Structures are given as C-alpha cells and as structure tokens.
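Fig. S4 source data, part A: sequence.
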Amino acid sequence: MKKLLIGLVAVLALAGIGIWQFGGTSQAAPNVAFTTISGQKTSLEDLRGKVVLVKFWATSCVTCIAQMPDMIANYDALSSKGYETIAVAMQYDPPNYVLNYAETRKLPFPVVIDAQGELAKAFGDVKLTPTAFLIDKQGHIIKRYLGNYDKTAFLTTVNKALAS
C-alpha cells in the first residue's frame, strides 16, 4: 500500500510539472541577458514591445535541425512586424559546432551559446531540445513548446500576440 501511495504521489507531481512546463500561461519570462556568438548583448527587458521566441536547441538534435528552415522563414516573414527569435544552444553543444552551423546556414536571428547552463536554468531548468518559449510584448510567457509543434497553430499564436 505504501509503494502504491508513493507511486501515486510521484505521478501526480510529474503531471503537475508537465502542466506547468507545457501549458499556456502568463508567467513572467525571466529577465535574462544574452550574448550572441558575434558578441552583441541584449536582454529580454531590451526586447519588450516585441514578440520573442527563445528556442533552446542543439546541433546534435535532429528535430531542432529539422525545424530551422521554419524558424528562418518565420523570422524573415515576421521580424519587420516586431517578432524576434533567439536561438540558445545548449551547454553541452560544442561552441565550434554552433558557430559553424550558424555561419554556414546564415542564420538571420541572434544565436547564443548557453556555456554555463544559466539560461536553461532561468527558464525552468530546460534539459530537452527543442524547447521554446513564446514571450509576448509585455514580457510574459504565453506558450511553451517541446519537440515538434503544429506550425499553423504556432503562427496563429504569434500573429495574435503581434496584433495585441
């Protein structure tokens, strides 16, 4: 009976984490600073007034790489309307791989290497890639994404956030 109770508590705790991690919410995004691979510095505070996608990824992540063409297309189509993307490479990703990928693919958005894992920790200790956070103009997380996502629903959410 005790094992059953412990198991039930563990399942409920994990379910609660899942709801927090992937459900829609208006939780404030952490006010973190980013230094891009080209040395530019910005923070989420600096990006207030824009809709921002913070995407945790890795060069070794097949799904991340498969999503890059859509990320580029979305950025190209929406950046003039106030949309920003920040691609955050995970701590374990070799910096030279990230730099090579960004340069050879001519990524048009800022690319950051989370060398100390501080950005992943600030966003709830991100461990899995791809994990993305869509942040509204006021700096609130409006949606979290893990893995593949519905492209149409994503663009609908982004456009709604841009319009508000």
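Fig. S4 source data, part B ends here. Residues 25-163 form a domain with the Glutaredoxin fold (CATH 3.40.30.10).
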